[in-house]
């Protein structure tokens, strides 16, 4: 068989060996060119070039059944990789590279395709459609030997059948209260589903083929699978929103009580109010951090669902609603609930910040008042110390002068009358003003030198 010949049984998935081996081709192999323009490429170029070819449209033949399962990354991507690698080796196929995001290999009368996403992986298998719609499936890879890599988040059973007498009665298979029936591709196909699960827990979708090409058939199937997978993932934000809503209400009530106390002028409770608001803010931020990724992912998944529904370009069949209108009526309220909780968190965070800033201003004003009182007290104390120091200095001048005059008196008395023909008492008395001035001048110099040294 030629290396590039098509692989498929009963005109199932028409896919080449090159396409099956796409997960083994590195980005460098795709990006590196030969010839005159084989320049050194930017590191990101290979990833950018390879990404647009990472999910080639599956070419599907008529009368096929498709099973797609989506498993969450509960144990990490390594678990998912090990499962697909082991399945590849069991079929004699080279396993994907450790960082591969896509892998495909023949399985039975169809192809098993694996894709790794951020928080889940999808496992797609097609095979010949059973004789009856909803009949037993043969040859799928999800039997007793299959080891699920994580918890199942989405499961789809999609059958493609040509228009016949059976398909004209297909509406009776589904639950009439939630049946969606629409035409797509300008009437080349019809879609029927009730978004309910069969006995195996899979959502059933029927595509009535009225002349689709293999490419159009594959593109339509991929859009339908994406709608079911991503609408389930988008709804994961709703349980978290419902859980957080009472918590947000409790924090809102707590903030209302605090602001009422602030309104009543509870300035003496500023420290207690600040501590309580800090606790509420910590709880709010913890919940916001917990829900940040989930709500963001729900928005992204909801956007993908809307894009896929627009691409379907459904035409409603009389008496029934389309998939788009059905999901809009059920998903839109859930997404608005998530958005409302997210907005309440953001608004509450801003209110807590403003209230906290107000209480902090109270505390700052009180601290400034206390600092002013403290400074005034210190100024008074310094003035008292200065006056006391000046008093002590005056007393010191008097005391030192007294001792100096006394020394002069002793000195004059000791001198002979012949040497100093003046009465010692007169000398002592005359020395008093000079002694006082001299001591005062010395003390003043000492005080000035200390003051200059302090600067």
Automatic annotation (TrEMBL):
Q: Which UniProt keywords apply?
A: Membrane, Transmembrane, Transmembrane helix
Which Pfam families does UniProt cross-reference here?
A: DUF3422
Q: Which domain of life is it from?
A: Bacteria
Q: Membrane-crossing residues?
A: 394-412, 424-443
Is Transmembrane helix one of the keywords UniProt gives this record? Answer: yes
Q: Which InterPro entries match?
A: DUF3422 (IPR021830)
Which protein is depicted?
A: Uncharacterized membrane-anchored protein
